[in-house]
Specification:
By secondary structure, this protein is α/β, with parallel strands linked by helices. It has helices at about 5-15, 20-30, 40-55, 55-65, 75-90, 95-110, 120-125, and strands at about 1-5, 35-40, 70-75, 115, 135. The protein has one domain: Rossmann fold (3-Layer(aba) Sandwich), CATH 3.40.50.1010. The protein is built from seven helices and five strands, in the order E-H-H-E-H-H-E-H-H-E-H-E.
Length: about 140
């Protein structure tokens, strides 16, 4: 099984004071899956960690994300074109660029499960490769 990891999941996992921390930690500990993090997530999560939890937390995250448990996935030109189409199609939902690239990468890699707390956007999207995303936690 392969899952895609969104910024909101990573932030809650790192933030022990987050109301979703325990749920995210439980999923992270029990999930036997390949964890794919789109490279577009990295600037967003490192910024949030630095600003909200401190530079030391951000540095720890950068060290952790290079471990073999994580797969970093760059978006290709086709992913960026698809992300642009998604931003246009779902403009009324205020879908952001990072989420659009995450969806495009999920479609390309045929990934149906997303680790995210962003129910609003990921429930609204109708991916091309499956009926709907499975969202965890």
């Amino acid at each position: 099984m392969t899952v895609l990891v969104d910024t909101s999941f990573l932030f809650a996992l790192a933030n022990k004071n987050d109301t979703s921390h325990l749920a995210c930690a439980t999923v992270a500990q029990s999930l036997q899956a390949r964890l794919v993090v789109p490279l577009t997530v990295l600037p967003e999560i490192t910024y949030l960690l630095d600003v909200r939890l401190g530079h030391h937390v951000m540095r720890q995250f950068v060290q952790q994300i290079t471990q073999p448990a994580w797969t970093l996935e760059p978006p290709g030109v086709d992913d960026l074109n698809r992300a642009g189409a998604l931003l246009e199609q779902y403009g009324d939902t205020r879908l952001d660029f990072v989420d659009a690239t995450l969806i495009a990468i999920a479609e390309r890699l045929k990934i149906q499960c997303v680790l995210t707390l962003d129910q609003r956007h990921f429930r609204a999207i109708r991916p091309q490769h499956c009926e709907a995303f499975e969202l965890l936690p």
